[in-house]
From TrEMBL:
EC number: 2.6.1.16
Protein name, entry field: Glutamine--fructose-6-phosphate aminotransferase [isomerizing]
Keywords per UniProt: Aminotransferase, Glutamine amidotransferase, Repeat, Transferase
Organismal lineage: Bacteria, Pseudomonadati, Pseudomonadota, Gammaproteobacteria, Oceanospirillales
First-level EC class: transferase
């Protein structure tokens, strides 16, 4: 869940690393820090302030190599002592970490039994002290021969040995002061390397090197990338890169790839927040989501037709999107798909068999629970399809049928445009199954046009005014049929952005217990269109009779509504893609009118790479 960014080159490394961390802040913003080699020692800059403050506070270090980290706290409080990077006692090396060391308490006890002092509450410091012990053993061996400084080989060996005793999904990067050395190891959490080539055009030598948690963080510099697999170490020295397989301790060939060029500009372009900007970009991103090779869709459909069972999975918002895609496939293509929350995979795995299809939904493509499910399903020869937004993600690399969402970078922690892009994929898949590929693309193009006219000042002001009337700490959302998914995603968005308790129910549950929650003035959102108008009118009447405040998300007014938000595309068969947008906007205005920053909700990070 943390962000890692390292750099070796000729530019000022501090500036480059800070800019990289600013693009990774969605991964965690509890604190951030830098490790910079200065005169054979590691100097550290740490702060609990937001990363944007780095633009106004000078960091008085100059170097051609640096390593940075932006933290989402897992072990230890949010304070300066627990902030990364963690530095060795000798100040010869520093370490940053993304993941959880599951056996850190055992390792910590072992260190204390050897009288090793620990100053932080983190699992990361345990790794640092273990590396120190390994390096001290090497020094003792050297003393029997002759005094010699530690080499890059020594650091590589010590780093690899310590990593092998760690349990859990952990990605680490180490910087060594006197060697201008970066070492990185990936296991579970993402790690990607980018370079600008030197005159020889040899990818294993370079002018500049970037090592980071995602491609977008350095995409403005280069699109020449190397993706690390689990249990691989990368060794980055001045003008030289090598990859080591930690299972064999052998150097292996590096596979450099050219990615599509992207630039993540940290500009709100006049919008108050990235969330509002990214919501309004959806008119264009849903059409980009259909830039899929029809043959790739046909290959997936062939596998689905041969499968005994089809499953769809995700975590958090991605699971709710998966449930909605399952509904779309049932309704349009008459295909039954079993939605499985990734964190509850264990009870479903025994029923899965070779040839089944598992469709995984993820914004980052690095969600730990979902990856864990995929890895176990592959052991049973289940075929994997994935829909992700991040190029080079591990989920894509594990997939038999990988698809990209093409939503572009999302800075806001909440998924907005990536969610509608995933729904666009689901709609296109369902329509392709029934031989309506071209018709589906036409409907999505028309939906894009409709959305371009939906984000008017008047419509936005209407939702902002509505948000002012929503008081209290509870909101309930009721929907049925194609609105079940929209209500669940809407409730999650409201909780994430505004910290108001929002809960979604199938409308039919109202009379079976939910109605006991309705008091005078309780806000209740009812999703309604022509197909379910009669049914939802009866539901709304029952809520109204108990004093509830009815907010209709609807195609047309209804006398039962106290307030109404218009659905974006009432007459479009692809409108299921856009049903989630009204609640995105309501969540945004509920947050801002409470003085909250919806881009950075408390306790959350966008990419959940720990279990």
């Amino acid at each position: 869940m943390c962000g890692v960014f390292g750099y070796i080159g000729k530019d000022n490394a501090v500036t480059t690393v800070v800019q990289g961390l600013q693009r990774l802040e969605y991964r965690g913003y509890d604190s951030w820090g830098l490790a910079i080699p200065i005169e054979n020692n590691i100097e550290v800059y740490k702060t609990l302030d937001p990363l944007y403050t780095a633009d106004t506070v000078p960091i008085d270090f100059k170097s051609t190599i640096a390593l940075g980290h932006t933290r989402w706290a897992t072990h230890g409080a949010v304070n300066m002592t627990n902030c990364h990077p963690h530095v060795s006692t000798s100040k010869q090396f520093a370490l940053v970490h993304n993941g959880i060391v599951e056996n850190y308490q055992t390792l910590k006890a072992q260190l204390k039994s050897q009288n090793v002092s620990l100053i932080s509450d983190t699992d990361t410091e345990v790794i640092v002290r273990l590396i120190e012990l390994e390096l001290s053993k090497m020094k003792q061996i050297d003393e029997f021969c002759e005094e010699s400084p530690l080499t890059a080989d020594d650091y590589q060996e010590a780093f690899g040995r310590v990593f092998k005793v760690l349990k859990g999904r952990n990605t680490l990067v180490l910087i060594c002061a006197n060697l201008n050395l970066l070492l990185g190891i990936r296991n579970g959490s993402p790690l990607i390397v980018g370079i600008t080539s030197d005159a020889s055009n040899n990818h294993d030598s370079y002018k500049e090197l970037f090592i980071a948690s995602d491609y977008y963080s350095f995409a403005k510099h280069t699109n020449t990338c190397l993706l690390l697999d689990n249990w691989q170490m990368i060794r980055c020295e001045q003008n030289n890169v090598s990859i080591i397989d930690l299972k064999t301790n052998q150097t292996i060939p590096s596979n450099w790839q050219e990615f599509e060029r992207h630039t993540l500009e940290l500009s709100r372009e006049g919008f108050s927040h990235f969330m509002l900007k990214e919501i309004q970009e959806q008119w264009s991103t849903i059409t980009r989501a259909t830039a899929i090779d029809p043959l790739a869709l046909e290959n997936l459909i062939h596998a689905m037709n041969q499968a005994k069972n089809i499953y769809i999975t995700g975590a958090g918002a991605a699971f709710f999107i998966g449930e909605q895609i399952a509904s779309i496939l049932r309704e349009i293509a008459n295909i039954f798909v079993i939605p499985v929350p990734a964190y509850e995979a264990k009870s479903y795995l025994p029923t899965m068999q070779a040839g089944d299809v598992l469709i995984a939904i993820s914004q980052s493509g690095e969600t730990a629970d979902t990856l864990n499910f995929i890895e176990q399903a592959k052991q049973k020869d289940v075929l994997i399809a994935s829909v992700v937004n991040m190029p080079g993600a591990m989920m894509s690399r594990l997939s038999d049928f990988p698809f990209l969402s093409y939503a572009g970078p999302e800075v806001c922690v909440l998924s907005t445009k990536s969610s509608t892009s995933q729904l666009a994929f689901g709609y296109l898949l369902a329509q392709t199954i029934v031989d309506q590929y071209e018709s589906a693309k036409y409907n999505i193009d028309r939906l894009s046009h409709q959305l371009s006219h939906y984000f008017t000042d008047d419509n936005l002001q209407n939702i902002a005014d509505l948000a002012k009337t929503v008081t209290g700490e509870h909101i309930y959302l009721l929907g049925n049929q194609q609105f079940i998914g929209a209500s669940k995603i809407g409730a999650l968005n409201i909780k994430e952005a505004s910290y108001v308790h929002a809960e979604a129910f199938a409308a039919g549950e109202l009379k079976h217990g939910v109605i006991a929650l309705i008091e005078k003035g309780t806000p209740v959102i009812c999703f309604m269109n022509k197909r379910n108008e009669t049914y939802m009118t009866a539901i709304a009447s029952e809520v109204k009779a108990r004093g509830g405040m009815i907010i209709g998300i609807s195609e047309q007014p209804n006398e039962l509504f106290d307030h109404m938000i218009r659905l974006p595309s009432p007459d479009n068969p692809a409108n299921v893609i856009s049903h989630i947008i009204p609640c995105q906007l309501l969540a945004y205005y509920l947050a801002t009118q409470r003085g909250l920053n919806p881009d950075k909700p408390r306790n959350l990070a966008k990419s959940v790479t720990v279990i």
